[in-house]
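Internal QA ticket QA-208
Title: Verify multi-chain structure generation after dependency bump
Assignee: T.L.

Test input:
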Amino acid sequence: MEKWANMKLSWQWFHRLGSPRWFYQKTSAWLPWLGAAALLLLAVGCTWGLGFAPQDAKQGNSYRIIYIHVPAAFLALAGYYIMAICGAIGLIWKMKLSFVVMRAAAPIGAVLTFVALLTGAVWGKPTWGTYWVWDARITSMLILLFLYLGVMALSGAFSRELSGDKASALLALVGTVNIPIIYKSVDWWFTLHQPATLKLTQASTIDPSMFYPLITMIAGFYLFYAWVLILHTRGLILQREWRTQWVRELLGQSAPAAKA
Amino acid sequence: MQSESVGDGRKRIAEPVLRPAVPAAAPGFFTLFRTELTLAVRRRSDIVNPLLFFVTVLALMPIGIGPEPEMLSRMAAGLIWVMALLSTLLSQESLFRSDYEDGSLEQLALQSQPLYFPVLAKVLVHWLVTGVPLAVLSPLLGMMLNLGQAGYWPLLLSLVLGTASLSLIGAVGAALTVALRRPGLLLALIIMPLYVPVLIFGTGTVQAALDGYGYGPQLAILGAILAAAAALAPLAAAGAIRISLEN
Amino acid sequence: MQFQFENFASFLAMNGHGPYVWFSYGVTIAVMAALVLVPVLRQRQMREAFRRQLRQEQARRRSEIARAASETAAAD
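Actual output:
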């Protein structure tokens, strides 16, 4: 009996986390710090990467795009897993908040995938002489973008919100199982068709003077992602809980002079 | 209905039969499979239309890109594979639709038996009536598109294995969108990216044979994908059906 | 660690790669700013919509009270 009570106690935070209201109120305090830290890291990383990191011997200054391309690509992929994990939590524990986070993660991930694709294409012009190459990584990124768009389209297609939540969570999970297979197969496909001129993508050891700003940028992107994810989730929470008492109090409380 | 005149003219009064709402024994896999197959064979247009689509669009290809034999032979395997993918996808929309609309899907879901086997039976039938005919027809189209002779068998074999995976993966999408009014494009949008590995190894099989290598490894990978899809896709589709039924 | 460019103009030019680099960074910054601004603006919009609704409700209530008062006055 006692053991059971203890277990309940230890799970309390989990259930509280599932309450949109608790999440909204708790994150209010975190947001400024998270945002400030993210922007600071991004500013430092950008300045470092753009102005102070040495020039690349082969690619010249165009390589500086790496400082946004690689972090964006990192988070595009990580974002898909975050989305799918949130969907899984929602499906298993029937947690409302988890679905909200999943829905918030989808457009953010799609935008970051788009950024990775765009910067990759622009980087390709001075490096390969053309904007678009069916390179293994670019192709995988493109498919990842389609996966994101599929989840977004499906989540919006249902008239009943919960059905959209569950259906898109399931699709995200199916996509998660597929992503490694897709990446591997695209890799294989690319080595099959790789023309001799495109050997520039060879991963080489990167000099510390170039690596530290990259790490800074990756950390900055992660913090930025967390910040934006919380912001979007809060927006969706307000939208969904529009009719509840606490949202009405929250929105009304800062109204100046609402006296009769 | 129960009262029928018996041979000797006596009218037998119907005995009140209490029918259980759910059949006592859920229909087994083979019963379901046979029923589905009979139904599919009866709806002849469901078999013929994807094939016609496949052939028609492939006939348009040389008109679009030009009749040069060399170019066609380079593109043949890819074109045939992409078209097989599309016609599988287009025929998949109706996989659960009629069962959803007449309520038999709900009845299946209410039974204690897991949905895995009913889904598998339906997908198997779908593959038999769309994938297999496409594969059988493919060497003919390969010939018309000037595919090298070495590619015929690999094309046929890879399509047989590959379309089974396509049917299985597509079933998940069909189950997810069955409750929507017009799922066509959405189904394509959510399922296409998941088809990529099958497409890559399908065309890879043919390409390897055309280049004079053995194509066993590619076929083996297609087989592995099929095994994984057969194990997992019906589970996901079953979950998706339950979600769709709640809507 | 030192600044890799002689002056600001060469920093902008980046040995001819300037347009690619600056375009990439510009688009990324714009897109990321949009990611932050969209929920913030939406929240502000909701807040305003809510206040408008609140004001309307209050106005309605006030006019109802006034009407009730005038009706009782007329009845007297």
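Spot checks passed. Residues 51 and 57 of chain C are 10 Å apart (CA to CA).
Status: verified.
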